[in-house]
Amino acid sequence: MNASKLKILQKWEEMAGYAYIVLRHIPKSERFTLGAEIRGVIWKGLRLIIKANIARNKRQYLIELDSEVKVLLALLRVAHELGIIPMKKYEIFSEKLIEIGKMIGGWLKHANS
Length: 113
Prior knowledge:
Distance between the termini: 17 Å
Order of helices and strands: HHHHH
Radius of gyration: 14 Å
CATH topology: de novo design (two linked rop proteins)
Number of helices: 5
Number of domains: 1
Shape: elongated
Number of strands: 0
CATH superfamily: 23S rRNA-intervening sequence
Helix content: over 70%
């Protein structure tokens, strides 16, 4: 399957676009710390999706991708608890990540069979 047609890649790109909208409004003091960390995880996840799509043994990339989603959820939770990301944006962002997590689970199940 072509990476450009992957549904999970489309969802990841949508989430990344939303992340950049959210991160544009965080305080300058957090932009180069927590904001940079969140952006780094987003780009790592994008690379892992592409690698998993190309690789014969997808399992290792999918497991790593799943852990990156969990890290991103944790970073968002911290940002919300610190008052950096408002509740509504946190909820939307989290929902997008949970949906991606479910897609990863399905892909992993398929890769194991």
